[in-house]
Design brief:
mainly alpha
């Protein structure tokens, strides 16, 4: 599934950190933060962001340069 990846390494790290922050917030503030944590973790894990596809944004640099 390499051809559809649109999340770069730095973006992936930011999403993992954001997921951890949301997990902490779900225990301290509101359990609804777990939804954001799941979304951030899944998009970081599979390196695909559906919103980026809609907007046409890519943060990875693995484009074919011919």
């Amino acid at each position: 599934m390499k051809q559809f990846e649109n999340v770069g390494k730095i973006d992936q790290i930011v999403r993992y950190v954001l997921a951890l922050v949301f997990i902490v917030l779900s225990f301290t503030v509101s359990p609804w933060f777990i939804i954001g944590a799941v979304i951030a973790f899944v998009t970081a894990s599979i390196k695909v962001c559906p919103l980026y596809m809609i907007v046409g944004l890519k943060t990875n640099k693995s484009e074919d340069k011919k």
